[in-house]
C-alpha cells in the first residue's frame, strides 16, 4: 500500500524533529503542530509515536539494504567502494536519532528487540558479500576471518558513532554536528585501509595525505585528565 | 582513606550482583540481604545505590589507568602487548555492568556526564603513548593519524562490545556470557593486526591460523533475515 501524502509528510517532519531534538523530547502533539494538522488527523495515520518510529525504522532498514545492493551483471569497482561509504554515512546522518537513542528505543519497544538483530544480521551478511566481491576483483586482500572481524568492527563503530560523540563530550546538541557525524567516514576509511590493494590503495594513500590529524583527538588533548576522588 | 572491610565487601558483592542481574534490577536491600547485613549498616557506608556505583566506577577507572601504565626504565616488548590485551579484556569482563548500561548510567547520573569524557580522554591519550612506544621499537608501523583512528575504533568497539552482543541477539542473560565477552579480544587483535611488525607480526599470524571463523558470524548466518512489513 502506497503511503498517502499526509503519511509521508508526517514521517518527514517526525524524522526532522526527532533528529533535531531527540526522540524523547518530541510528542505526537509537537509533530501535528509543526505540520499544521490536528492531533486527530495524525492519529488517523499513526495511532501513536511508537508507530511513527516503527515506520521510520522500516524506511531506514529498507533504504540501508537498498544502498548495499551489489551491481548486477558487472564486477565491483573502486567507485562502488566510495559510493557505499558515502551512502552509509548519509544514512547515519539522516537517521541519527535512531543511532543516538537505539538503546532506549529497544528497551521501550519489545518489537525492536526482535527486529534489530534481524536487521543487523541482514546488513552484516550483505557486507560479507560485498567485501568478498572486492577481494575477488583484487581491490582488497583479506581472509574470510578478517572480513568477518572487519564487518563486526565497522558495524559497532558506525552504529555507535553518534553515541560516542555525545558520551565523549564532543557533541552537546544537534547544531553543528554534521561534520562530526561525517567523521564516521574517516573511521571507516582507516578500518578498511590496511586491506586495500591496487586502485583502492592509491585512493586511500591520497586520502591519508590530505586528511592529517583528527579534530576529535585535538579536542581530547585539550580536555582535563584528572578526576576528583569521591572519598 | 582506606576503605573498611565492610566497605570493600559491599563493593565486591554489589559488583557481582550488578554484573549478574544488571544494575537496574538490584536494590540496596538486595545487596544488604546478600551480605547478611542490615540496610542501615549499608547506608552507613554508602548513602544510596548511586554512591555504590560511583565507588565502583572510581575503582574501575583507577584499575584501567593502572593496567595502561608504561614500563619504567625499559622499552615496550611484544609480551607487553599481550599483557595489555589480557588486562583490558579482564577489565571489560569484571565490570561488564558498566558497559552494558553506560547509556542509562550517564542519563541517570549527571556526575557521570562529566566524569565519563574525562576518563575516555585519559585512556585514549595513554593509548596514544603506548602505540607510539610500539612504533618506536619497531613492533608496529603506523602514522600518527593511523594511531588516532585505531584508538578511537578500539575504544568504541571495546566499550560497546557487551551492548553489541545484547542488541544483536547473541547474549540473552549473564549465564555463559564469558566466552562471548572474551571475543572482544579477537576484535582487538584484528584491529591491530595489519599494523604489527617483527615479533608481534609472527604472533599475530600464529593467532590467525589458530582462530578460524568467528562463532558470532556462524550465529548470524543462522538467524532469519526477513522482517515482516508493518503495513
Rg of chain A computed from alpha carbons, rounded to a whole number of angstroms:
20 Å
**Largest protein-protein interface:** A-B, 64 and 64 residues
Distance between the termini of chain A: 62 Å
Task: Please give the share of residues in helix of chain A.
Answer: over 70%
Average pLDDT figure of chain A: 87
H/E series of chain A: HHHHHHHHHHHHH
CATH second-level architecture of the largest domain in chain A: Orthogonal Bundle
Number of separate strands of chain A: 0
> Structural class per helix/strand content of chain A?
mainly alpha
What is the CATH C-level name of the largest domain in chain A? Mainly Alpha
For the report, how would you describe the main beta sheet of chain A?
none
Number of domains of chain A: 2
Shape of chain A: globular
Oligomer: homodimer
Q: Could you give me the name of the CATH homologous superfamily of the largest domain in chain A?
A: Tetracycline Repressor, domain 2
- The low-pLDDT segments of chain A are none
**Percentage of residues in strands of chain A:** under 5%
Structure description:
2 copies of one chain form a homodimer. Chain A is built from 13 helices and no strands. In chain A, helix 4 (49-67) packs antiparallel against helix 5 (78-94), helix 8 (110-136) crosses helix 9 (144-159) and helix 9 packs antiparallel against helix 11 (178-192). Chain A folds into 2 domains: 1-47, Homeodomain-like (Arc Repressor Mutant, subunit A, Orthogonal Bundle), CATH 1.10.10.60; 49-212, Tetracycline Repressor, domain 2, CATH 1.10.357. By secondary structure, chain A is an all-alpha fold. Chains A and B meet through helix 4, helix 7, helix 8, helix 9 and helix 10 of A and helix 4, helix 7, helix 8, helix 9 and helix 10 of B.
Amino acid at each position: 500500500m502506497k503511503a498517502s501524502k499526509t503519511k509521508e509528510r508526517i514521517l518527514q517532519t517526525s524524522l526532522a524533529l526527532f533528529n533535531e531534538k531527540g526522540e524523547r523530547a518530541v510528542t505526537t502533539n509537537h509533530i501535528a503542530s509543526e505540520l499544521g494538522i490536528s492531533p486527530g488527523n495524525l492519529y488517523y495515520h499513526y495511532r501513536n509515536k511508537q508507530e511513527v518510529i516503527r515506520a521510520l525504522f522500516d524506511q531506514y532498514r529498507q533504504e540501508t539494504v537498498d544502498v548495499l545492493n551489489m551491481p548486477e551483471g558487472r564486477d565491483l569497482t573502486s567507485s562502488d567502494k566510495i559510493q557505499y561509504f558515502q551512502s552509509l554515512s548519509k544514512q547515519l546522518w539522516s537517521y541519527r536519532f535512531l543511532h543516538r537513542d537505539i538503546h532506549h528505543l529497544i528497551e521501550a519497544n519489545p518489537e525492536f528487540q526482535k527486529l534489530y538483530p534481524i536487521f543487523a544480521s541482514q546488513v552484516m551478511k550483505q557486507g560479507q558479500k560485498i567485501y568478498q566481491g572486492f577481494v575477488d576483483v583484487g581491490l582488497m586482500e583479506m581472509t574470510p576471518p578478517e572480513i568477518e572481524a572487519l564487518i563486526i568492527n565497522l558495524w559497532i563503530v558506525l552504529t555507535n558513532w553518534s553515541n560516542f560523540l555525545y558520551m565523549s563530550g564532543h557533541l552537546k546538541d544537534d547544531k553543528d554536528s554534521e561534520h562530526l557525524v561525517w567523521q564516521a567516514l574517516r573511521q571507516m576509511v582507516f578500518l578498511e585501509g590496511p586491506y586495500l590493494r591496487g586502485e583502492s590503495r592509491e585512493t586511500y594513500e591520497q586520502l591519508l595525505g590530505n586528511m592529517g590529524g583528527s579534530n576529535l583527538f585535538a579536542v581530547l588533548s585539550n580536555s582535563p585528565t584528572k578526576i576528583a576522588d569521591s572519598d
